Amino acid sequence: MNLAAAVFLLLHGFAHLVGFVGAWRLSSTVPYKTTILNGRFELGDGGVRVFGILWLLAALTFAVAAVGAFLRSPWWGTLTLLIALFSGVLCVLSWPEAKLGLLVNVALIALVALGAMARGKNLEGLYQAEVAAELAKHPVNAPGLITENGIAGLPPPVQRYFRASGFIGKPHTLNVRLHWSGMQLKRSHDADWMELSCQQFNSVAEPMRLALMKGRMAGVIPFEGKDKYQDGHGNMLIKLMKLITVGDSKGTSMDESALVTVLSETFMAPSYALQGYMKWQPVDERSARAELTSNGITVSGIFHFNEADELVRFDTNDRWQDGTPPKKLPWSAHLEGYRMAGGIRYATRVSATWHEPTGDYTYVKGTIDSVEFNVRN
């Protein structure tokens, strides 16, 4: 199957060389034209040569996609989809001579899209499968109660948080499921806010977090993002239209940043604070420093509490900002809008901010609609 796909892509790419040969007058058997769109627009000799280079570029890219198909590389389908779209534009501009090429590209796009849907799950399916795997790995069985003796080793402001939030005498929070609304994301300082929906699952037995986000780029193109820290590694995976992977961040810096996110969310499932992988140090009457270690990586940050013993801010210097190369910058999470539900007090509004040399940049904010502790399915 992959050999057949590779041969087909090579042949289709080879056909694009006709456009290059004609534009550069390399053969007398290929007609030379200086117009596009059935004679509506004149390009001139220079423009035709540039147009010919585009045909050559398409041919070479189809050849690369063919090699990827033959080697079963994970990117060949995405590359084929993109170059088929590009080739389709060239065929439209060269109408009617290239109408057969346009039909081939339409068929190619349809086949790649159908193949992608047949092969893989969308990110929501992956998210649900990973949550189910975590629940099977660490089922909620008789979690026991949070007691005064259990929190005695924590810094005073953290102890007061447990008491004021209503966790003493309640079951240990072995996991938590969150549903967000009104979540907004900003990709850069000057970008518009992008509306998102989000659901999230955290597990405490070992540092673990999963979040699924959905939105529309430019208000039109649907996308899904899955952000996780699981089994000692972080990953941010983004897909357009459930098919095209446009982001797949992983590696050491992603592991560290994702672990920082888990640390910042300690009090969304407060039993995190009582695990052996967490180390605490008092800072002052209203703040405490925590270290979280997982898979050989240690991250740290400071939690700040107000006079009502509410957690209001988390600060760290251990998070990486995307870039070439990525760099560590001060980062903070801010919490507010506390409310009581089921005898538990928790924050409902959360935002995250980069503290850059040129100024602060808040890039995500949202509202927590519901919190479920110790979910079993």
UniProtKB/TrEMBL annotation:
InterPro entries assigned to the protein according to its UniProt record, in alphabetical order: DUF6544
Entry's transmembrane regions: 47-71, 78-95, 101-118
Pfam families membership: DUF6544
Keyword list, A-Z: Membrane, Transmembrane, Transmembrane helix
Protein name in the entry: Uncharacterized protein
Protein's organism: Archangium gephyra
